Amino acid sequence: MEYEITWGGDPEDACVTTRGEASLEGFGAWMQEGLSDPRYREGMSFIVDHRELDWSGVSLKGVQDRIGLFKKNSNRIGRIRAAMVMRAVVDFGLARMYQAYIELQPDLQIEIGVFTSIEDAREWIRERKAADANPAGS
Fold first, then answer.
1. All residues at 6 or more sequence positions from 45 whose CB lies less than 8 Å from its CB, including other chains
2. C-beta neighbour count of 59 within 10 angstroms
3. d(CA 74, CA 18)
4. pTM of the predicted model as reported, rounded to 2 decimal places
5. Per-domain residue ranges of the chain
6. CATH T-level fold of 2-133
7. CB 124 within 8 Å of CB 85
8. E strands, 9-67, where?
9. Which residue, among 73, 62, 91, has the nearest Cα to 31 in the 3D structure?
10. CA distance from start to end of the chain
11. Chain segment 28-82, per-residue pLDDT in tens
12. Is the Cβ–Cβ distance between 18 and 54 less than 8 Å?
């Protein structure tokens, strides 16, 4: 699995682009690189672009193992927002399962949205940032 982390963007704070065959080692590598970068901070919004990633070898156990990586690093991760962009319907379904597992972990403060287009992911981040800036809706 290959990945690239690009810092900055509009409206995202960073974008992770993955390609190749999905692997737990690859997910762990980009997570550790991102958390170790001095630009990482709690409260960031990420786009995680998985449109070039082959998810066909990912099992339920693989999803649970990836959640375990996040739980193991939850103190370093803190509160973040991630818009996952998937290429195919089956990948979208797997990402939604991943989203559900994250939401069931009370110690994780990761807000996830799942999309099939970068434009929709960016719009979701914009909406969430606007809500953060104006929580009372006034």
1. 11, 12, 13, 80, 81, 82, 83, 125, 128, 129
2. 9
3. 22
4. 0.89
5. 2-133
6. Transcription Regulator spoIIAA (3.30.750)
7. no
8. 14-21, 45-54
9. 73
10. 45
11. 999 999 999 999 999 999 999 999 999 888 887 888 888 888 899 889 999 999 9
12. no
